[in-house]
Amino acid sequence: MKLSIVSCLLLLSFAQPLAVAKDLPSPNQQHLVVLMHGLGRTRESMKMLEKRLLQQGYEVHNLNYPSRERSIDDLVEVLHEDLTRCCVAPKRKIHFVTHSLGGILVRAYLKKYSIENLGRVVMMSPPNQGSEIVDLLRDLWLFQKVTGPAGQQLGTDSTSVPNSLGPVTFTLGIITGNRSINPFFSWVIPGPDDGQVAVERAKVEGMTDFLIVPYGHTFIMRREAVAQQTVHFLRTGHFRRAIDDER
Fold first, then answer.
1. Is 179 helix (H, G, I), strand (E, B) or coil?
2. 12 lies in some domain
């Protein structure tokens, strides 16, 4: 019975429809924001952010990547190939805005590769110190099926990928939630959490700013207040402190 409940929770948390890739953006503007969706998601989950950033005058590249099919190391190479093809240009500032696993990929990417004109990075609900949910469920066949190789690498032990990357050395703002619609997962996670990642485990040494919002993990990137905070950080290097609760 317990396994059945866990299975349903996993499917609700991670399963998303496939999206169709679109043409790459033209490299005309001087500030490009690369959007990185989370585990088991697609670029469609970042569409609201894409729209808000375009309205603010940024060029946006909303990357679709096979999050459930490859390891984090392999996904870093996917990101490298994509950025090399679409986004590298003289004098262009490149920023990143990520959700969940996307933040770990950016950390891993920037540890291996350098970007000459790197701008600012905003991470939403990143498991920067791993997640207890992975510790608990990684041996279950359904969890392995739903999250793939990368999902297995997001535990809280010292050898997990997030905990092996070390401090960040770039301008980073982190937004994470403290509300959950998943009582089972929140029971497993110590302290305040967003249903999948503990608030404390979203932090990483070297971050520039940290903001807690009253939202959950799954849809944090679709909140208008979070989009506003993201734009503010990209412009100024810090968050605006007031948050409107959209519940």
1. coil
2. no
Q: Please report whether residue 245 resides in a domain.
A: no
Rounded-to-integer distance, Cα 216 and Cα 180, Å: 5
pLDDT of 156 above 50:
yes
Question: How many domains does the chain contain in total?
Answer: 1
Q: Name the nearest CA neighbour of 51 among 221, 246, 220, 238.
A: 221
pLDDT at residue 125 in the model: 98
> 34 by DSSP, 3-state: which?
strand
Q: pLDDT tens for residues 107-136?
A: 999 999 999 899 999 999 999 999 999 999
Query: CATH number of the domain that 205 lies in?
Result: 3.40.50.1820
Mean pLDDT in residue range 144-169: 96
Tell me, yes or no, whether 11 lies in a domain. Answer: no
The β-bridge relationship of strands 118-124 and 93-99 is parallel
CB neighbours of residue 159 within 10 Å: 8
The answer to the question of residue 7 being in a domain is no
